Amino acid sequence: MSTLARWCHRHRLAVLLIWLAALVALMGASQVVGSAYNNDYSLPGTQSARATALLQQNFPAQAGDTDTVVWQRTGGTGTVRDPAVVARMDAVLDRIAHLPSVTGVTGPYDARGAAQISRDSRIAYAQIGFDRPAAQIPKADVLAVIRTAQAARQDGLRVELGGGAVQNAQQSPLSNAALVGVAAAAVVLFLAFGSLLTMVLPIVLGVAAVGAALATVALLSHAVAIGDFGPTLGALIGLGVGIDYALFIVTRHRSGLRSGLAPEQALVTAMNTSGRAVLFAGATVTVALLGMFSLGQSFLDGLAVAAAVTVVFTVLAAVTLLPALLSLLGRRVLGRRGRRTAAGPETNPGWARWARVVERRPRALALVAVVLMAALAIPLGSIRMGITDQGNDPTSSTTRQAYDLLSQGFGPGFNGPVQLVVDAPRPDDRAALDAVAAAARSTPGVASATALPLRPGSTVGVVQVVPGTAPQSAPTADLLHRLRTVTEPQAEAATGTRIYLGGYGATLDDFTRVISGKILWFVAVVVGLGFLLLTVAFRSLGVPALSAVMNLLAAGATFGILVAGFQWGHLSEPLGVGGAGPIEPFIPVVMFAILYGLSMDYQVFLVSRMHEEWIRTGDNRRAVNTGQRAAGRVVSAAAAIMICVFASFLLSGQRPVAEFGLGLAAAVALDAFVLRTVLVPAAMHLIGPANWWLPRRLDRILPRLALEAAEQAPEASAAERESVDVTTGGDRTGPVRSGPGS
């Protein structure tokens, strides 16, 4: 790291130009090539995947997205069958049918759409067929459909639109929420540094890294199946960790300058300590994210790639762009007050007092922290995973209003139909198809089941099944299970056909079941990899074991808060993202990977300072105190920044984004202010020197990975020792150690 730091210092203008050129090239390429995000929840080998394949082979016109235009006759005694309404809506639907990306429109005023008018004749809908999945339809084409349909609105006639394509086009941009988070982070940075110039550095780094990463992710979406949530996830993580990593390095650099080091040597010292920790922390976050590949699901693989690419760019910016910027600023990074203040290490009397409190009462504080985390985790026992529907969109959105109108006119399950795809041994077997429809109608929980027209000469037919309950409700999930395990086997035996449950709802149900069944395996993989990395870094079994326990506690408490906020509905309604509903199955998986990585960040930054002192003195008490006093302020400031960034996404108006915002903000708050501030140091005091124990045989086998520089300049070492003495307020009577466990 020292070589890289010196090179960036001496070639700072070249580093800035390289980053600028890379940003321009990547963003330009992404604008020219575009993106190809694809929300593919299908799982090879499942019923829904087989059903989808049969539908694509036999009904290619139905392979694209299907959205709806819904209208309601309001006021008076009129109906949607009134001649004026019929003429107005027929003209609008005809114009929509000729718009780009639209393959056809099925309205309620011809024979094919006779069932698309409610019993009271006050609500009707038309189906709009697109030529590709929702995520791949150009936004401009969908907006043209929306404008054309909404132009039909007038007094007494309400018109709304629903469906995946409309929802994607109507989603509010996340930039406003991100700006709120960045502004709040800037305030925290100013309070931490007391300098406007220094405050800008972490923000510049975060924005540059995220910009380059998102452009790269857009290009990668042509080669890897990345969902359209990937860029959002990348921005969420990149802004948080980018600002945090910069904060750690800048804080260490300023400490070196205040201790009397020249700017170049202060930069080298900062990169040899905090810079190494940033590299290791970024590696652990990346490993945790890539652990999602162990689930074998392409949608999650894509999210892992998007998030990991962002972290990689963030680390690259932290170890190259940031040193160049610090070099340009020189001693101005201290701010005017810092430059006027006498040289000497900064002290943290508040954290020194708290460290002494933890040392004196470790059992009591550890017990309080464990009870708090366990209490917050209680709601986790009732977690229910599933995909929420457009009934959870903001109440002002046209998709939510269309959803409510369809539920009002045609029943709550109308918004989530599923298909029984029937593969008969003979072509044109209408009798078998009707028998399957009859069996479906007799299944408890089914509101209606209709055999759709057969394609001449085809052995494949479709029975459209409408549940009697809302798509995201628990009874609907139970119904899908009954259709799979009871109705299908009985109907297959009676008709000699093969039946597959398909449709959007069935696909998401398969996705939920498969992911739920692999979560424990995923947790074991991520925790195991993290344990191995920490063992190599700190030459200890106690530190990684304690870290694993802390991270599992944090995950349990975080998911408990998430269940209370969104599944129980205590926060979802106030935030405008719908009422109570299940937790999306990919949320716990992705969030665990992220929060495990972020928790490892704080563990690394805290314990690496302890490790430095343990190597010097071999005194566990002194090492824990030193690490807590030296890292407490910067860890708390970093946590405050992350909380600001993550909490700002609660204002996005998008339910999955708000879930991530709440979960990650809560996870960081608990991790920094309960675990790393209270429970970790208390537990390390109780465990004692065994924290750093490693069997000699294992020590010989493991590769060497130093988080501290093997060699430092004499003046840097002296400055560091002086800083430790001042902040700890203790003597240096402990034995000198060459390394832990020696």
Q: Can you walk me through this structure?
A:
With 742 residues, the protein is α+β, with helices and mostly antiparallel strands. The chain is built from 24 helices and eight strands. The protein has helices at residues 2-10, 12-33, 47-58, 83-97, 139-150, 164-170, 175-193, 196-220, 230-258, 263-290, 298-329, 335-340, 349-360, 362-377, 398-410, 430-441, 474-495, 504-538, 542-567, 586-617, 620-648, 655-687, 696-701, 714-728, and strands at residues 66-73, 102-106, 123-130, 157-162, 418-423, 446-451, 460-467, 498-502. The protein has a four-stranded antiparallel β-sheet, sandwiched between helices. A hairpin with an 8-residue loop joins strand 6 and strand 7 (460-467). Helix 7 (175-193) packs antiparallel against helix 8, helix 9 runs antiparallel to helix 10 (263-290) and helix 19 runs antiparallel to helix 20. The longest helix has 35 residues, at 504-538. The radius of gyration is 30 Å and the shape is elongated. The model is unreliable at 710-742 (pLDDT under 50). It is found in: Cell membrane. Its main location: membrane.
How does the helix and strand content classify structurally?
alpha+beta
What's the helical proportion of residues? 55-70%
Walk across the major sheet and give the strand order.
2-3-1-4
Quantity of strands, as a count: 8
User: What's the total helix number?
Assistant: 24
